[in-house]
């Protein structure tokens, strides 16, 4: 779906599909260089990171295995509570392997911190984070991070990100207008 199909719902388009895919190719080149010859597992966070994870995997010049996790972080009064619940665990054994956690946007960092801690307990060789977008004031993590774009505040939808199940199939990444937030 193109942005013009839901233009009245969008405040602005942050990243066009072409710009996203160009940056995904650059991130894949960086990762490919850094992990050449290593056994890499991409761990995608469902559902938002599915599109990003698959696009990055296809842009890599080497074999990777993809695993999926689904988690839910809870908010109270539109603020992160710090509570995270595992909905779907990783089906792969990552012990002794190089893991890259794939996320489309990192906001408060609470969910990512939980994921890093959870996966470290499984004794991987290394853990890194790859996020297409990072919002302001995101904390630094004690693991390497690949970041596509720093973006401003606002409800971001598209390229896998949704608002109550809508806009996930939008080809670009956009800020949802306040009146359209559900």
Automatic annotation (TrEMBL):
Annotated GO MF terms: guanine phosphoribosyltransferase activity; hypoxanthine phosphoribosyltransferase activity; magnesium ion binding; nucleotide binding
Main location class: cytoplasm
Residue spans crossing the bilayer: none
Keywords annotated in UniProt: Cytoplasm, Glycosyltransferase, Magnesium, Metal-binding, Nucleotide-binding, Purine salvage, Transferase
UniProt catalytic activity: IMP + diphosphate = hypoxanthine + 5-phospho-alpha-D-ribose 1-diphosphate; GMP + diphosphate = guanine + 5-phospho-alpha-D-ribose 1-diphosphate
An annotated GO cellular component: cytosol
Domain Phosphoribosyltransferase: 18-151
Pfam family, one: Pribosyltran
Record Gene3D superfamilies: 3.40.50.2020
Location of the protein in the cell: Cytoplasm
Keyword Glycosyltransferase: yes
Cofactor requirement: Mg(2+)
InterPro entries named among the record's database cross-references: HGPRT, Hxn_phspho_trans, PRTase-like, PRTase_dom
EC number: 2.4.2.8
Domain of life: Bacteria
Metabolic or biological pathway: Purine metabolism; GMP biosynthesis via salvage pathway; GMP from guanine: step 1/1; Purine metabolism; IMP biosynthesis via salvage pathway; IMP from hypoxanthine: step 1/1
Gene Ontology biological process terms in this record: GMP salvage; guanine salvage; hypoxanthine metabolic process; IMP salvage; purine ribonucleoside salvage
Homology family: Belongs to the purine/pyrimidine phosphoribosyltransferase family.
Protein name: Hypoxanthine phosphoribosyltransferase
Organism lineage string: Bacteria, Bacillati, Actinomycetota, Actinomycetes, Micromonosporales
């Amino acid at each position: 779906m193109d942005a013009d199909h839901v233009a009245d719902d969008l405040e602005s388009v942050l990243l066009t599909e072409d710009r996203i895919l160009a940056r995904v190719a650059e991130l894949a080149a960086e990762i490919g260089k850094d992990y050449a010859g290593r056994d890499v597992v991409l761990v995608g966070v469902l559902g938002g990171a599915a599109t990003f994870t698959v696009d990055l995997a296809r842009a890599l010049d080497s074999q990777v295995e993809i695993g999926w996790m689904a988690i839910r972080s809870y908010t109270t009064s539109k603020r992160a509570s710090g509570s995270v619940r595992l909905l779907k665990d990783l089906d792969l054994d990552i012990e002794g392997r190089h893991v890259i956690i794939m996320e489309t946007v990192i906001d408060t960092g609470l969910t990512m911190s939980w994921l890093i801690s959870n996966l470290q307990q499984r004794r991987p060789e290394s853990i890194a984070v790859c996020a297409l977008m990072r919002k302001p004031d995101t904390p630094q993590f004690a693991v390497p991070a690949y970041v596509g774009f720093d973006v401003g505040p606002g409800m971001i939808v598209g390229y896998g990100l949704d608002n109550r199940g809508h806009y996930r199939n939008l080809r670009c990444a956009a800020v949802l207008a306040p009146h359209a937030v559900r």
